[in-house]
Write a structure and sequence with these properties.
mainly alpha
């Protein structure tokens, strides 16, 4: 069968184009260090890489959530611990005041002033806000104080609803403690203190029963508060474990991603050499065939 010059040119051009394209792509891979430039280079690996990228995006978001949540829980724990210390000071003062025979009316007046200051300090811990101005212990009503004093009585102006944050696939962690939790359901203890302070200042002879009731309520609040501190510590431990676990998963993902997408430079260098040899051979063959004519054979 006779092969025309046009056919020879087409074959040679196709071969040159193929080798040049393969060489160019290989050089691009070597420049980027990536084996897969477009999904069609390895469809199966590309799908796996896409899944890994999605998982890494989720892990990064979870890690961010964990870091933010740990900061809020730590701040809440610090304020509750300070509140616990304040309650213990109140308790010591109430026990001292209960020893009626050893205290003059002036002594009780001084104790009343100190007790009132400690009460206000304790309330200030319940009404603490974060750097964005949101109240820690107001439940989902983060724009309202947790506890408010109005007309001489304390009321809970937040709510007891939890706020939750996603920290892993299908895992939600409560990110708050409410004043309702701390005060064992109601602000009665604070109102008892209000009444007691007034009696210590104005009617000290009638305080004995009220002090006993106040100590009982204080102990109940202190137990509730201590339980919340313990729970906060447990949540932070859980977050630390999740963070470490997710970091391990991320390392595995990075290893798999590297294995799927990274270029083997030794193999790539060999392939590049082969393409260049083939390209040179094609070019020489093309020039040789192009220069042939019948007069050379006569």
């Amino acid at each position: 069968m006779r092969i025309t010059n046009a056919q020879i040119n087409a074959i040679m051009n196709s071969s040159l184009g193929h080798n040049a394209a393969a060489t160019g792509k290989l050089m691009q891979q070597m420049a980027t260090g990536k084996r897969i430039i477009v999904p069609s280079d390895d469809p199966i690996a590309s799908v796996r890489l896409l899944r890994i990228a999605r998982e890494e995006a989720s892990l990064n978001q979870y890690q961010h959530n964990i870091d933010s949540l740990k900061g809020r829980l730590s701040a809440a724990e610090t304020n509750l611990q300070a509140g616990s210390d304040t309650l213990l000071e109140m308790r010591d003062l109430l026990l001292w005041a209960a020893n009626r025979g050893a205290n003059s009316d002036d002594d009780l007046g001084s104790m009343a002033s100190e007790l009132d200051t400690l009460k206000e300090t304790f309330v200030s811990y319940l009404n603490v806000r974060d750097e964005e101005g949101r109240y820690y212990f107001s439940g989902t009503k983060t724009d309202q104080r947790a506890v408010t004093l109005a007309a001489g009585a304390y009321t809970l102006t937040g709510n007891d609803k939890p706020r939750e944050v996603a920290v892993a696939n299908g895992v939600l962690i409560k990110d708050n403690v409410t004043a309702t939790d701390v005060l064992a359901g109601a602000p009665g203890f604070l109102n008892q203190l209000n009444v007691l302070v007034d009696l210590m200042l104005n009617n000290p002879a009638s305080i004995t029963t009220h002090i006993g009731d106040a100590i009982g309520s204080l102990d109940k609040v202190l137990a509730s508060l201590s339980g919340q501190i313990t729970e906060l510590g447990g949540r932070q431990n859980t977050l630390s474990l999740l963070k470490d676990s997710q970091a391990d998963v991320s390392l595995v993902n990075q290893k798999i991603e590297g294995e799927l997408s990274s270029l083997d430079y030794a193999e790539a260098s060999l392939d590049l050499s082969n393409y260049q040899v083939a390209l040179q051979a094609t070019q020489k063959s093309y020039l040789k065939l192009h220069s042939l004519n019948l007069f050379d054979l006569m």
